[in-house]
Amino acid sequence: MKKRLLLVLFSLILLLTACIETKSEVSKEKDADSDKNSDGSNPEIEILGMSSSEDDINIVRDQLIKNGFDVKLNLQPDYGSFKAQQDAGNFDVALSSWTTVTGNPDYAVRSLFKTGGDYSILADDEIDKLIDQAGIETPEEYVETYKQLEQKLVFDKAYIVPLYGSFKTQGINTDILDKDSIRLSKSRALAWETIDFKDKSKRDKDPLMLSQESSTLTSLDPIKGNDGSINTINTNMYVRIVNLTDDDEVTSDGSLSYNFGIAEGNSDYYFLLRDDINFAEIKDGKAVDTGERVGADDVIFSLNRAKDKNSVPDHRTYTLHEHIKDVEVVTDLDALEAVTISGGDDTIKAALEKGLDTDINELVSDKNKANNEAGKYQVIKLTTTEPFPQVLNYLAHQSAGIVSKKQVESINTYDVDSYDVNKDIAYGDQDTVTEGDKYNNTLYASGPYILSSKDNYEATFYKNPAYMKDTEHEPKISTVKVRFIKDADSTLSALRNSEIYLYYGVPETKYDVVDKDDKLTRQSIESNAVTYLLFNTENREVAESENLRKAVLYSINQDEFLDFYHGNKLKASSTVSPLVDTGNELKSDPEKVKKYLKKYKDNK
Amino acid sequence: MLNIKGKVHENKNEHEHALKLYVEYTQANFTCILSLIVTIVLLLASIDITSLTIKPYLFIAFVAYAIFTGMQIVITQKIKKDLLMLGEIQKHTRKWGYIQLFSILTGNIFIVIFALNLIKMKQTPEYTFAVYMVLTQIAIIAISALNVFKPYVANLFPIAMIVLFIITLFQIAVLFIVARYANGHTVDQRMIFIVIPLFIISVTGNFFALLLGCSLLIKIRNNYRPGTGKWNGIWEKISQNMTAMLGMLFIIVAFSISICSYFTFDYDMAVENNYSAILQSPSPAYPLGTDNFGRDVFSRIVFGARISLVVGIASTAIPAVIGGIFGALAGYYSQRTDNIIMRLLDVLYAIPGLLLAIAIIAAFGANTINLILALSVGSIPTYARTMRANVLMVSNYEFVDSARALGSSDLSIIFKYIVPNSLAPMIVKATLTIGGAVIATSSLSYLGLGVEPHIPEWGNILKLGSEYLESNSYLAIFPGFAIIALVLSFNFLGDALRDALDPKMD
Question: Does one domain contain both B232 and B172?
Fold first, then answer.
């Protein structure tokens, strides 16, 4: 009896095991996985990245392994160690990302891929030539040039592997803030002056609570930093002579100029300045009007130091302004009438007068004599080294923020060549606004807000009392506080329990959490951020072998990134993709991978 | 009437000590509580609070558990009555155990263990080992068998399952034999024919088979040298401690599945991304759901056990050996040697262990070997201290003097005579610190300093799950539970070992 029972049981199990498909049977059917088993001959790819982007690295790792590579990971905890590893060349591909904050395609390629660019490790004449050519072309013309550039950069030479483009997303507490007052712009940083409470009576009583990741502010001197820690802050502390609209058109709205005009030839640019902005300073913990007007001399001073590499130590933004040749104040009214605008018959004067209440009667060189109601204006003329219309985008960047000539010159008395970081205190040093014994706030803000003080927990800003008073651009809320919250989860929690009112940059995986919360609203817009893999160009197999690079290129499947991020990412074929529709698309192709890998191995 | 009542009362007092004497009663109560907790958890899980509907499968499980738990309570009362009235458990009460055995179909391991203990009037450690050995094997088969719901299984899966099944049949046979023939202090010499296969099957990681084999072997050899050894005394104590045995069961199941998973699980399921199955809730194909890369969390936890156990045990064994040697030398030799070794170790002791580990990993990179080394270095001094204290005590004993008189060398005195007699506290300490090492491993991985993020390790899985606490809480609950269970198990086992090895407890 027992024996029979055993026999039945045993045969049942045999039957069951016969029914199951094993892995090799399945993979035989699919005819895949053939390359997957490592026989030691697989090329090894070392991926360098920060642990904050470990999800992306994992997807890349998975795709490379499935296409017959061996993968080594080099994960670094922060940007500093990442950069150190990158500079030391300890990688085959580095996971990089780029956001074109100026909204023009030139910026998306110049400092990244041109020989000698700020962030460039490439040296390719053909690519340099295409970048320069596209720079001087009009938007209609440059589409084709950027298409060729992409073709060369990505598909022919495979210097980078594009992964995806991102959305810019903000979560808003609509119980507290007026949703319609908050802008969401493709490129420019968040404008604080428009933001308003739902309950208007709270404007002077309650602070606007915002957040940002980094509590270490690179510098409050606009030309000395270009990173996430100060972009938004400096954008709101310093006015510029032009701005970007939400969809990256250059505009005078909310800037120091009423109007601007491009003269025939695309080399001369004219700006008509406003007279209703004064610098603000902090006195006894309050923002006060200094009585000093933001005028033409400040603009000339600011733009000249922006383009001059040696104007300050640690100048981080001069390459953005290398096309500026000359900035001057125009005093001869006839000169404006003598020039016509680019691509039109109007004179520059007519272009600058568009929509003004009082026409230009007189041009003054002393900013204090300007009186717009009486027709006395200041006009700035900017000349570029070559015809370069995209210069306007750079002028809208935070690094072209207008600082006070008088104040900066009185603070930056040190000699640039012998600058000693321990002794000399530069204008905008974060220590001067950090609470403690070094506190000595010398900031002069031309923008809607001024930083009063900060610690590691938050920074407090006050409204500039003399910023476009009684216009629509006058800041609505008197006090802005920016909380420093390191990680995304905590920031989201802060938003949800109303510690902050607006979260700028909600991660893709948290969209549903924001959507589910009744008091929160989510807004998304396609951003200019592109994530890509950058190949090492020295001392590695990938630097030598184009075939190996191409094998990596065609291993990458952008659809899988889209799947992982629940469709909240965009396909991209290079860093210009969000700005120029070139029509190129990277399609993963295991056959091509095999082909290029074979070529690579044969050549070795 | 009054008289009889008085007599009953007297009887009760007389047999009150029987309640303490019989482990069955303690175990019955313990089983009741554990089983009740699981039942309540199932009930809560089966009700969807938001819509007030009942999930059918979980509710059926709850009903099954409730029935057996109810019977368990009845049996506990019966045992109590028996013991108070008669001072022993009646035969027909023990028969109830056979009914409770069926709870194995519901997976209620607590009741099964209790039932098997109840059925057997006199429990020997061998019987307990055999019971746990069979349960371990069944657990392994059950865990592995869940793979049949997957789209495909590992290549060796069918063969491995048949082998496991045959081993189980053999083990059940051994259980019967042991229950029948291994009750005395000695056993028949022919038992050697089951001892050898037991040793062989312990390569599947089922250390209960190894323990059973050793126990039987000692008893076989005792045929010629009667008298109970220390071995039996220790294991008798431990095997009566149900928490310790449950802890050991979990550890050995985890260990065994780490080995068997080489054949029955497919590693690619745990590391390869599958974008068509992202963040799925638990289902037969993915018993614990899938994570944000579409990887099977169940497979990941199974493979994670390997790293957690290896790192936990290795980072305990290495400092125990190194610290042990240093401690022994320091304890045996003169003041100067002692001072040099111990003061140097004190310097190491002054550095916080986890900080030292983080520093080592930051300097040399994150991988399993570095992780083990980093965790090991910090705990060398504590082992050295323990060993030194023991050696100081033991080296004053007469047998050490006699060994010295016989002209043994210092090294042979230390490692042949002193160290073996100083090991007991080291073993206890090691067992208790494995739990700490497992937590340290997971903590470092959680901080992103452990093994690479795609490698299945419990801390890694938990870290990923913590990002989905709100939307997909199972991603954090299961690995968290695994870590808790493993650490608790080692602690329970360590406690029981300390009790068993402590001469004062006799």
Answer: yes
CB A390 within 8 A of CB A321: no
Least confident of A293-297, A436-440, B445-449: B445-449
Final residue of a structural domain among B121, B148, B182: B121
Task: Work out the minimum CA distance from A500 to partner chain B, whole angstroms.
Answer: 20
Which of B153, B157, B162 lies at the smallest CB-CB distance from A13? Answer: B162
Q: Give the tokens for residue B64.
A: 């099954």
CATH code, domain with B314: 1.10.3720.10
Q: Distance, in angstroms, between B155 CA and closest chain A CA?
A: 5
DSSP result, A248-287: S-EE-TTSSEEEEEEBTTSSEEEEEEPS-BEEEEEETTEE
Give me the amino acid identity at B203: V
CB of A333 closer than 8 Å to CB of A339: no
Q: Is A480 exposed, middle or buried (0-12, 13-18, 19+ CB in 10 A)?
A: buried
Could you tell me if the ipTM is greater than 0.95?
no
Check whether domain A37-166+528-603 has CATH 3.10.620, yes or no:
no
> Does some domain include residue B2?
no
Does A501 score more than 90 pLDDT?
Answer: yes
**Mind listing the pLDDT tens digit for each residue in A235-294?**
999 999 999 999 889 999 999 999 999 998 889 999 999 999 999 999 999 999 999 999
Choose the closest CB to B452 out of A13, A22, A73.
Answer: A73
Task: Examine the domain organization and report whether B250 and B274 are in the same domain.
Answer: no
Residues of chain A with CATH 3.40.190.10: 177-414+426-500
Please give the residue range of the domain that contains residue B62: 8-121
- The answer, for A509 touching chain B at a CB cutoff of 8 Å, is yes
Residue B230 and residue A488: Cα distance in Å, rounded?
58
CATH number of A177-414+426-500: 3.40.190.10
A59 and B273 in contact by Cβ < 8 A?
yes
Contacts of A23 in chain B (CB under 8 A): 152-155, 266, 268
